[in-house]
# Entry
Amino acid sequence: MFNSRISSIIRKEFLQLIRDPRTLALAVVIPIVQLFLLGYAATSDVRNIAMAVWDQSRSPESRGLLDAFRAADYFTMDYFVGSQEEYQKLIESGDARVALVIPVDYSRRVFEGNAQVLMVLDGSDATIGSTALSTARLVGQSYATKILSEQAALSGRAAPSSPVEVRTQVWYNPDLNSAYFMIPGVIGMILSFITTILTATAIVRERERGTIEQLIVTPIRSWELVLGKLLPYVILAFVETFEIIIIGRYWFGVPVRGSITLIIFTSGLFLMSSLGVGLFASTIANTQQEAMMTVMMYNLPSIFLSGFFFPLEAMPKFLQWISYAIPLRYYLVVIRALLLKGVGLEAIQRETWALAIFGVVIMTAAALRFRKRLD
# Structure
């Protein structure tokens, strides 16, 4: 008798799952998404670090050094520049993570046994900075050993010292403190998670309680209803953003080098995307549980493919291409550049335009769908 009652309850629950295919599909899909994201994106084995090269020597010896860096398979020489201003702009914008500077007299100094080259590293991403720092030193030592062997073979005696030294400078985060990288990322995560979840569940909650119909029959316009529902979460998101900035600044020592006005402006652009996703999820879901799971289907890929936990350079190419469709990717570049590098709008204009386009498109589509459902 006891077993038959349990069997009846089990059968009833399975029937409810089958009758709710949306929830069942989400429950099945989310673990698969997590599996692939963790399997491919969860890696810190960074390769293909974008490098800017300023080769002032332009000699066979300098080309030999560049070949040594290419052979290491950690750097891609995407940019060849002609001044410090050029590679500084590339590092500020995030297009290049490191810059290799070879002096004019490099060739002569190699033969004299005291050549030095400079490697400038972007320390705003501690993981990439640490990898680039250790790899640059290893490449320099390996190349110096190779030259020593060649010189010893020609002269019959070993050189007294290393002929090539790679000197390193770490910008923006000299100690490669991981908090400098994580705390700006937390701002993006909070803005994304809080606004999408609260927006989606708040509107669905009105529908579950039957109060949304009461709002519809009032003289309030649909856009006024949308605005009234979203504004409290905008205010809450900004309050939490400044809480994180203040705590990060005075507790963890994370610098705030950029313009506060620019931080507010770009954060507002990103909020349009997050609020739009939450609003769109509210038009799909019928219950708060469905709304939460729908939002999770958006937030999970966003966190893993935005560069929040793991460097984008360490991911497979197809995941890097997918990440271009995630607004959080662009916002993390912006907020880290503003807080750590103190750049102006010029350095982040590409990401700012992307945030603006995403925000307008997503919010407009969500608002139109929400209005249609109200009607």
